[in-house]
Write a structure and sequence with these properties.
The structure is a single chain. The protein is α/β, with parallel strands linked by helices. It has a domain of about 180 residues: Rossmann fold (3-Layer(aba) Sandwich), CATH 3.40.50. About 35% of the residues lie in helices and about 15% in strands. It has 8 helices and 9 strands. It has a 7-stranded parallel beta sheet with strand order 6-5-4-3-7-8-9, sandwiched between helices. Strand 7, helix 6 and strand 8 form a beta-alpha-beta unit. Helix 3 packs parallel to helix 4 and helix 3 packs parallel to helix 8.
């Protein structure tokens, strides 16, 4: 039996030959040239007309003209994003019970917020929790410092920003990310709870994303603690007086957070309301 060769691109009728072209419904191998009016396939994607590229994928791949635009295309970004997830999962998979601590990068040592972070980090480590922060200065540094000084696991998840100076000196396990959403996935995935210190837009973003995930059942119902009564009370009053009153959230949604000035109460709330799995084992 003689096998007939598959028609090549020069065997196709002009204009694509919709009625007589025996290969019109078959994807063309990637790299074939395409005449105007023919279907051009890039994997599962079909292109026609002006969208047919002037160069094949192989030509672009083998071209050595010093250009690197391909590393800025969306398909390439997908690979970068995938790589960031793999790196993050690989680095944190064996971390054990952890709590994410959020807060401002702008506060200085000696401020109330810094003191909160320092004490929270120490107490969490004493209870057997790893402490995960954004790895920056301010309250993040304080929580990492407290965990490290208590001989606990101190983790920093950094982010690529033009004004960031890198991970603070108290991070023992650090991972840097390009993409906020990958980084925030790590904060949630590996945490048994959240302690939120005073902070700005970034802190609010992390807080409300966490509350949304809990409210909608995307993650286990786990404890969220706000540290700083004077700082957070106006926000909670607005939530009760506006969001609840206008029917935007259920009255019980306000109970997703615990407000306190006491680091011991904050950590105790985490310990007594474990999100999933076994309780952390206290150090010593």
């Amino acid at each position: 039996m003689t096998t007939q060769p598959m028609p090549g691109p020069d065997d196709l009728p002009e204009g694509g030959g919709a009625a007589t072209d025996p290969t019109r419904d078959q994807p063309q191998p990637e790299g074939w040239p395409a005449r105007s009016g023919q279907d051009y396939y890039k994997g599962p994607v079909r292109l026609r007309g002006r969208r047919v590229p002037e160069e094949t994928t192989d030509e672009r791949l083998l071209r050595n003209d010093g250009k690197s635009e391909f590393v800025h295309t969306d398909p390439w970004r997908v690979m970068r994003i995938q790589a960031e997830f793999v790196e993050g999962f690989g680095a944190l998979a064996e971390l054990g019970p952890a709590v994410s601590v959020f807060g401002s990068a702008r506060v200085r040592e000696g401020s109330p917020a810094y003191t909160y972070g320092l004490e929270v980090g120490r107490l969490l480590a004493a209870e057997g929790f790893a402490v995960i922060t954004g790895g920056g200065p301010g309250t993040m540094e304080a929580a990492n410092r407290g965990a490290q000084e208590a001989r606990g696991d101190s983790v920093g998840l950094g982010i690529e920003l033009p004004f960031e100076t890198g991970l603070n000196d108290y991070v023992d396990l650090g991972v840097n990310f390009r993409y906020f959403f990958v980084r925030k996935t790590m904060f949630v995935k590996y945490a048994r709870g959240f302690i939120v210190l005073p902070g700005g837009f970034g802190t609010l973003d992390e807080l409300f994303e966490a509350l949304t995930l809990v409210q909608t059942g995307k993650v286990s119902h786990f404890p969220v603690v706000l540290m700083g009564v004077d700082f957070w009370s106006p926000l909670l009053e607005w939530i009760r007086g506006t969001l609840v009153e206008e029917g935007m959230i259920a009255p019980g949604d306000v109970d997703l957070v615990r407000l306190t000035d006491d680091p011991r109460e904050a950590v105790r709330h985490i310990v007594e309301n474990p999100a999933r799995g076994a309780r952390a084992r206290p150090v010593g």
